[in-house]
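Q: Got a minute? One more chain.
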Amino acid sequence: MQRLVIRHRGAESGSGFEVQRVDGRGAKTAPAVPLDDPLSRALPDTAARLGEELVWYLESYLDYPYGPHQNRAERVQAALQCWGEETFTTLFGQGQARDDYRDATRHGHGELQLAIVSDTPRILSWPWEALRDPQVGDLAQHCRIDRQLDSVADPPLPAGLSSERVGILLVTARP
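A: Always. Here it is, folded:
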């Protein structure tokens, strides 16, 4: 498994993102690059933001995927694809990060694991599955993409809480 870590540095949404190769040879980090917040991005020919439109697309579009809704869905898909390609180019388009990506995918993308690491919930909520290599297509269809917290410590356990029992919370998708 080849692992590349996209680590967000800073509390701001647009602050630096580092690409780090993590393998048996150790960890090597490329210089940080800024990324635009896709959820705040305006869609072309409309005042709507991608974040709002993405919620509509995922939660409501399939209720009535006809007529003008198809055009709206196509705008959302095009905006996601555009952001995915721009972000991929920014992250892996040059220097050490490009070389690490090429090394990690030398034998195909099936063994590639991308980890998105941040302590900012908004960064973790970005549509990272839209990352798109122009030569391969959507990376989410070819490799594994994970999200994880960077350095937020576990909260302290209350004094009366049992450490021998595990509670399970079942969460289902919204209708």
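A: The domain at 2-148 is CATH 3.30.420 (Nucleotidyltransferase; domain 5).
Q: Perfect, thanks.
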